[in-house]
Amino acid sequence: MGGDSTHHWQGVLNCALDAVGHTPLIKLQRIREQEGMKCNLLGKCEFFSAGGSVKDRIAKRMVEHAEKTGVLFPGQSIVIEPTSGNTGIGLALACAIKGYQCIITLPAKMSLEKEVMLRALGAEIVRTPTEAAWDSPESHIGIARKLQKSMPGAVILDQYSNPQNPLAHYFGTYEEIMTSNLPNKSISVLVAGAGTGGTITGIGRAIRDNEAKRTTILAVDPEGSILGGGEPGTYQVEGIGYDFFPEVLDPNPPVVDQWIKTNDEEAFAMTKRLIRTEGLFVGGSSGSALSGAIRYLHSSAGQAIADDPTANVVVILPDGVRNYMSKEWFLETAKSAQKDAENEGSGEKLKDTIRGILGRDLGDVSSVVREAEREDQKLENGEGVHVVNGQAD
Q: Model-level pTM greater than 0.90?
């Protein structure tokens, strides 16, 4: 495949859609070292995309293809999409720029942040019961179909069956990975979470069609999803897993070599670790993908790759934590980080140092106010700082 070797944006772009994709591959050096691995552990950081997720890619491609083929008509068509949120944000972004009305049907468990972002982009939101099976008339899919049938000009682009979904990754995401500065220019292991399956199917097919060297392709889904086997159930991680098999998903070899099941606890723990250790503000499904990758690399099947300093292990990190900051699992992050630091002793030592410098507890501002009152100081310009002619003295 051809294409340029640029992995982020350069120069002046025409609109936000030009900032979709072209996301960086970032070495996960610290986690690799902590795990005792020698391979190149790399994260494809999709939260750098304009709408904040890997789904921007398919939204842009589906809309543009629908325009080219006469499915969408500017000023007339209404875009409706059932989604767990990120595809909706990508579509709402495209619709805002191109002037389409947009309706998103969204299961109730999906985060408030996703709804806020969708509304900010001008989309209308319909929440549906999380418990509703995919083929229920009350599911996000059922409600979308009901609306589409009753609204003139309404179109469901349907990420679950639209071939442009995997094609966005076949022609885009894969090419970006291969034109990165990869050692040996080959992928030893590719790991991605699976929801609609477009990401893993598109990249997997591109690898099979273009790579001479054998690549192991791992799909990750949560316990409670049937994609990788097992009975349907509930789980909190968003954006991956389903209780049905989407049409665009190719779940078997030679596209997917192995399925790995993860649970909420390990997914969220790894997400927090990615944020704290690597400084990458990723969401829960990124934790799922990386925890699955690490489990495989520590297995008998993956140990040789983990020990190979020339091996490239690429993990797709689908979105950022922006959409989950009100979720309980994320709100616990600061508390758990503080507790870990205190257990190590470093937290209290640093606090003691700061207390010694300031002469007060870190969260105590009342003593500052009382001291200012005693000294007849005003605090409008800062904590007892007097500003004269724009200069602090």
A: no
